[in-house]
Amino acid sequence: MSDTSKFKINNYTESNKLFARALKVIPGGIYGHLGPAEGCSIPISAFPLFSERAEGAYFWDVDGNRFIDYMCAYGPNILGYNDKEVDAAALAQLKKANCTTTPSRLLLDAAECMVDTIEMADWAFFAKNGGDTTTLAIMTARAATGRKKIVLTKGYYHGVAPWTQKLGYEGIIPEDVSNNLYIDWNAPEQFEALIKKYPGEIAGFISTPYYHPVFTDNKLPAEGYWQKIRKLCDDNGIVLIFDDVRAGFRLDIAGSDKHYGVKADLSCFCKAIANGYNVSALCGVASLKGTVADVMYTGSYWMSAVPFAALVANINKLKRDNIVPLINEIGRKLENGLVDVAKSNGFDLIISGEPSMWFMRLGNDYPSTLLHQEWVAECVKRGVFFTNHHNHFINAALTDADLQYTWDVADEAYKVIRARHPDANYIK
Amino acid sequence: MDNVTKAKINLYAVLRNLQDLCSLDEESKNLIRGVNLKVGFNVNSVGSAVLEFSNGECKFVRGKGKAGLQLYFVSAEHFNKLIDGENTIPIFYNVFQVGFLLKTFTKLAERLSYYLKPSSEELFNDPEFLKINTILTAYTAFYALCEIGNSDVVGKITAKRIPDGVINCLITGVIGMNITVKNGVMSAAQGLVDNPHAIMEFFDIQIAHEVLQGKTDTFSGLGQGRFQIRGFIPMLENMAKLLNQVKWYLR
């Protein structure tokens, strides 16, 4: 604890030492969304860089600092880190076999588990990352329709394959994205206009269940939105693809399409599917089963048995303990507390998205977000891991004591920011 | 890459460096001492600019203007050849001032090349050279990325993705620039604004030099805490894509 803080202010000496080593042998030190650049660690001095262990709602970094983790490894942690039941199932399978020449019978168990759980699913095809499944979904839609074009909603994220990126990004050429068409979120009339403009050319419509891009307020589907999209797809022979990689198992155990009252043709799952074990799944309706079987698509580790054991144990526990309503209730409670704490300090905290994976920003400093970034950094320094750019995630291991700790840290962090910027635009 | 965008970069980012060169470099200051002349550069299908030399200073003004010596280039390629150092003769008006073009301007261009196209890596061991090189490189890069955002076919797509606002770009304690974006149209100016929407900051000359010369990637610079971005990141994220394009035009 410092003289002025009720909380221990983290020191990251070991993290920084490791990062200096990493820079010599790893591009960017830590590449991707877990790294300080894409992870928007602003300023980097406030953030841990390497973790040592994790348990329940927490992870500890290599300097021994504990964090209540509201990013949940960007989604995979849903039950709590190192969940005993999931780990026991995985370790039991590891003692038998993992990566073998013929797949384990757990492949079948996992597929049956998905089909029994996900309402739209008549089959499941497993891979490793969410992006594996979104790309397979696009290929399947093209194979099924004989068409090229794909409609996406602006602000989308469907992985990192070239077709999911944008012209102007390093390594992307016009041909990579030449068959992509874009509409705004909640704008079915734009979809209809594209169908008229490109008759018989659109293979699929891919979208997340609700609008959850980075840096921006999240938006839920407007009343009747998904039903209009479904009808336009049905009327025009277009495959409806739900990218449920991020929201899957956090809105509805049976799939986010069911949550919003429609049935997708293809649904992509990853993140919370196996509580941190590496597996993803594309699920689909019966009419596309033969098509996807014909698509050339495979990978070295896609049939590893250990993640399948974890998947089955995880989904069984999610169902048995009714986890989805629980994490949404925890999220709602946390959000309400954070908004109250912010308000008591003169800050206008704006929450959007679904409670189990909420997005937050300040109204006081939008769009610069400079105050919000400083507040997030002060929280992280005190052991509450938020990000300033991305939606957060709730896991079932969070306790009331964790929420209270979070609110107390948030309160002190707001006071620090207010003292640092006495003349900012505070609410009365 | 297209010739018109390259010519705009050469005119509004590279040539404009003469203004700063003449204030930073003693030899260049000496070259323009006593010169009182306005030189107009007019490039067909690209644009115009005027270099104003007076009282030992050089001022770059974007757009058409009255000038004692007017130079005309028939095409973007014609102008690009001049900046690339190839033998080319502009069409000029006022034969009595052509001496300036052949002597002073040529020498200024050589000084600019000395700093922007160093003949040896060892030059960077001289702190003064490193400083002037980095300042001129930074100005070139930030003015150039605006031209790319306004003119290059891919750059225009990227620029349209940048939310409206102002970005402060600075090397701490050395230089500051601000880049304004409105409806996908970009402009750059020297100096910092009070309430930017986003900030890109190099904490010292060395990291600015390393990043701008491609010796260190921005991710590593960020990770080391020697370079920082903050504020509305979508502005910076897309501006960085334009910055990446600069090297293709200036290689």
Number of helices of chain B: 10
Q: What spatial form of chain B do the alpha-carbon principal axes imply?
A: globular
Largest β sheet strand count, sense and barrel closure of chain B: 5 strands, mixed
User: Which range does the strand content of chain B fall in?
Assistant: 15-25%
Supply the number of helical segments of chain A.
13
Largest interface: A-B, 29 and 32 residues
Euclidean distance between termini CA atoms of chain A: 31 Å
Major sheet strand order of chain A: 4-10-9-8-7-5-6
Q: Specify the helix fraction band of chain B.
A: 40-55%
Q: Mean of the pLDDT scores of chain A?
A: 96
| Total strand segments of chain A | 13
**Straight-line distance between termini of chain B:** 12 Å
Number of strands of chain B: 10
Structural class of the helix and strand makeup of chain A? alpha/beta
- Unreliably modeled segments of chain A: none
**Roughly what fraction of the amino acids of chain A lie in strands?**
5-15%
Assembly status: heterodimer
The gyration radius over C-alpha positions of chain A equals: 22 Å
Low-confidence stretches of chain B: none
- Can you tell me the overall shape of chain A? globular
Q: Give the mean pLDDT of chain B.
A: 92
Brief account:
The complex is a heterodimer of chains A (428) and B (251). Chain A is an alpha/beta fold and 428 residues long. Chain A has helices at residues 13-25, 84-96, 106-117, 130-145, 174-177, 188-197, 225-236, 256-259, 289-294, 305-320, 323-344, 370-381, 400-420; strands at 51-55, 58-61, 66-69, 123-127, 149-153, 180-183, 202-207, 239-243, 266-269, 280-284, 349-352, 359-362, 384-385.
How are the SSEs placed, and which strands pair?
The complex is a heterodimer of chains A (428) and B (251).
Chain A: H1 13-25, E1 51-55, E2 58-61, E3 66-69, H2 84-96, H3 106-117, E4 123-127, H4 130-145, E5 149-153, H5 174-177, E6 180-183, H6 188-197, E7 202-207, H7 225-236, E8 239-243, H8 256-259, E9 266-269, E10 280-284, H9 289-294, H10 305-320, H11 323-344, E11 349-352, E12 359-362, H12 370-381, E13 384-385, H13 400-420
Parallel strand pairs in A: 3-13, 5-6, 5-7, 7-8, 8-9
Antiparallel strand pairs in A: 1-2, 2-3, 4-10, 9-10, 11-12
Chain B: H1 3-14, H2 17-24, H3 26-32, E1 37-43, E2 47-54, E3 57-62, E4 69-73, H4 76-83, E5 91-93, H5 98-116, H6 127-151, H7 153-160, E6 165-171, E7 175-182, E8 185-190, E9 198-202, H8 205-212, H9 218-223, E10 227-231, H10 233-250
Parallel strand pairs in B: 1-4, 6-9
Antiparallel strand pairs in B: 1-2, 2-3, 4-5, 6-7, 7-8, 9-10
Helix pairs in contact in B: 1-4, 1-6, 2-3, 2-5, 2-6, 3-5, 6-7, 6-8, 6-10
